[in-house]
Amino acid sequence: MQRASRWASLVLALFFPWVAQAQQLSTAAVESAAPAALQESIAAAGATGVNAVAASGTMTYFWAGQPVAAPATILARGRDDFLLQVDLAEGRQLIAMTARSGARKWGGKISEIPVHNRITSGGNPVFPYTTLVSAMSDRAGWAITDLGLVERGGRKLRDIRLQRKFSGEQDPLGLLSSLSVVDYLIDPASALIVRTESRTHPLNNLAESYPRELELEGYTQFGGVMAPTLIREKINGQVTWEFRLTNMTVNPGLADSDFALR
To answer: Domain 2-254 sits in which CATH superfamily?
Structure first.
């Protein structure tokens, strides 16, 4: 992971200086009341102490404009560990990510998820609070910035930006940190996260970058914790998938082996 991180930093520094400029802009904002706002949101969701979740429901992909729905299971732990299992008619699809690796398995074939897309994945898309709880318990590993109120779809939302910090050996130019930026947009009325914003890239082309948005709706209580029951992903403004949550277990006692492709 360290060798890959150093290589990615060098490539970005040489060919994509706009990434470094983006980092300078993001770190120019003042880290004011951002941690307090996150704590308030975590408390509103009842997520204090939540480190892991196991969720089940229906995943609907929108391929060539046609919806394809299938049962799905999602496991998530902390800021990095994530597993998605979708039982499509043509076979099971698996996506697994940890701090050290990421891979996709479909049709019996395994393909690696490159480091630049693992970093920009934004953690747990179904229940973002596992990432936030991890960030609040490891303040030295994150920059947390309050960007104030922004307008999205006619709504005023509070924008809290999280940006991971890496060691100088892993990220000597700070470019991987720039790629890790995720904005969490909070509804001031409910204090719940209703949207996240980040960037994604084609697998083999860092020169291209697309906005990735997750919309979180229909918060419902599961075991005393509020979770969105509809999560919608948009890439460059186009809906790519929707996940409808039907059940969620909090802190199910997940092991490292649960996040391995099988």
So the answer is: Lipoprotein localisation LolA/LolB/LppX (2.50.20.10)
